[in-house]
From TrEMBL:
Record protein name field: Phosphate transporter
GO molecular function: phosphate transmembrane transporter activity; symporter activity
Organism: Lichenifustis flavocetrariae
InterPro entries from the UniProt entry: Phos_transporter (IPR001204)
Location(s) in or outside the cell: Cell membrane; Membrane
PANTHER family hit by this protein: LOW-AFFINITY INORGANIC PHOSPHATE TRANSPORTER PITA-RELATED, PHOSPHATE TRANSPORTER
A biological process term (GO) from this entry: phosphate ion transmembrane transport
Keywords: Cell membrane, Membrane, Phosphate transport, Symport, Transmembrane, Transmembrane helix, Transport
Topology term for the membrane: Multi-pass membrane protein
A Pfam family that the UniProt record links to this protein: PHO4
Gene Ontology CC, one term: plasma membrane
Transmembrane residue ranges: 54-77, 89-109, 152-177, 197-216, 223-241, 347-365, 438-458
Family label: Belongs to the inorganic phosphate transporter (PiT) (TC 2.A.20) family. Pit subfamily.
Broad class of where this protein is predominantly found: membrane
Length: 459
């Protein structure tokens, strides 16, 4: 459908502007969809009024994106196949971006409308997997070759383990709180508009702050890498390469390309010839260049495509059977060194992403707050339950953001609140839990199918 688009044409630029709007809309929906995870406890315990709570949460989300780095951002971009990310003609994959954002946005808004605390991360990853699957099938490659299952499983593992850790951690912490504290009011739903005792109120506000900031450092990063892909399509000469690379980095990367070409030639997949050619081209250009900013504008998109191709092949080399440990270490080292050349984000992209996430935080929280505060357990949320769930969530999400693992704020917080409900003996509402579980289970196959179908139609 979009095969007529030529790189740099007015039509392509127009479609890329639409993709950028969709990317920002997804980040906005991420804000209002996931805000409830942070503010549910402070609102339902009357520690903060709704409006101050969401404004404060929005500000902390904003700061989390700005200060959180980009490790998570590009963990998701690496799920995209190299031949989609860097097509032969050097053009940006407009159909891929449109399918990706439309799928994730549709699922986000749909689950929010139903009041289900579903994961934006889960939807985004499902959409990325769908693109990989469709691309492999279209080009006649088996799913074991055309899909980066190692990267997909590593991302999914963190998503699957995080709610279990949230449940277990909050359950244990709540039991400890019950053992140490004997104020009955802390373990009962608040009455009328009366806030909890001052120190518990302070803890709840602090944990809300922590979850909001951690959400920004993790979920807020996820769109940055994808927004960068769109911006690179709009202004390839300006943003295709990280022009802040030092002279030493450029020289080191150029010298490493001969080794990279040899490794790819021996252990690469069915795309290894393209990988070897790309490595040789990078070595030639970097060998004649002192600074990345000296590379002519018209050559930068092609160099970026070559870098993506080489990094993709080096990942294949790292996982190849029969490879020696020394070769594996070399491939991994070169791969990691090359990342800084293309995996970056200017400050204004972070600010733009942070503004969309923060603005989204200001609206739409009520539907999911009601589910978390009232419909999850057989009794409304008590102050001690909220504190335990949010403290565990802030710790898990913040740690994942620092280590570069994408986790779901929604899954962690929902798992944590469920753990405290079980720990209190109040039990959980099976109907609500079944609805949430069904949404979690259906998210991956539904978004895989939807994005694959859209990508096929649009491409």
């Amino acid at each position: 459908m979009l095969a007529f688009l030529a790189p740099g044409s007015p039509a392509t630029l127009s479609f890329l502007v639409v993709c950028l709007v969709l990317a920002l809309a997804f980040e906005f929906s991420n804000g209002f969809h996931d805000t409830a995870n942070a503010v549910a406890t402070v609102i339902y315990t009357h520690s903060l009024k709704p409006i101050p709570a969401v404004i404060w949460s929005g500000l902390m989300n904003f700061l989390g994106v700005i200060l959180g780095g980009i490790a998570v951002a590009y963990a998701l971009v690496e799920l995209i196949p190299a031949d989609v990310l860097s097509p032969p003609n050097g053009g940006i994959a407009v159909g891929m971006l449109a399918a990706l954002f439309l799928t994730a946005l549709f699922w986000n808004i749909g689950t929010w409308w139903l009041g289900l605390p579903n994961s934006s991360s889960h939807a985004l990853i499902g959409a990325l997997v769908g693109i990989s699957v469709e691309n492999a099938l279209t080009h006649g490659r088996g799913l074991h070759e055309g899909v980066d299952w190692h990267q997909i499983w590593s991302v999914l593992a963190s998503l699957l383990v995080s709610p279990i850790l949230g449940f277990a951690g909050a359950l244990l912490l709540f039991q400890l709180i019950k053992h140490l504290l004997h104020d009955k009011a802390l373990f009962e739903p608040p009455k009328e508009d009366k806030p909890p005792v001052w120190w518990m109120r302070g803890i709840l506000i602090l944990t809300c702050t922590g979850v909001s900031f951690a959400h920004g450092t993790n979920d807020g990063q996820k769109s940055i890498g994808l927004i960068m892909l769109t911006i690179i399509g709009l202004l390839p000469a300006t943003y295709a390469l990280n022009t802040t690379m030092t002279t030493e980095q450029v020289a080191h990367d150029g010298q490493a390309m001969a080794t990279a070409a040899g490794l790819i030639g021996r252990y690469g997949d069915d795309q290894k010839e393209l990988g070897v050619t790309a490595a040789q081209h990078i070595g030639q250009v970097f060998g004649q260049t002192k600074q990345a900013s000296d590379i002519p504008d018209r050559e930068r998109p092609a160099i970026r495509n070559d870098l993506n191709r080489v990094m993709s092949e080096l990942k294949t080399v790292e996982e190849a059977k029969g490879i020696s440990e020394d070769d594996k270490k070399q491939a991994k080292s070169i791969h990691e060194d090359l990342m800084h050349s293309v995996q970056y984000a200017p400050w204004w992209v972070r600010v733009l992403s942070a503004l969309c996430l923060g603005a989204g935080t200001m609206i739409g929280y009520k539907r999911i707050v009601t589910t978390l505060g009232e419909r999850l357990g057989n009794q409304h949320l008590a102050p001690a339950q909220g504190a335990a769930a949010e403290l565990v969530a802030a710790t898990l999400i913040g740690g994942a953001g620092l280590s570069g693992f994408p986790v779901s704020t929604t899954h962690v917080v929902t798992g944590g609140i469920t753990g405290t409900m079980v720990g209190s003996g109040a039990g959980i509402q099976r109907t609500t839990l079944w609805q949430i579980g069904a949404a979690w289970v259906l998210t991956l196959p539904a978004t895989v199918a939807l994005s694959a179908g859209l990508f096929y139609i649009l491409s």
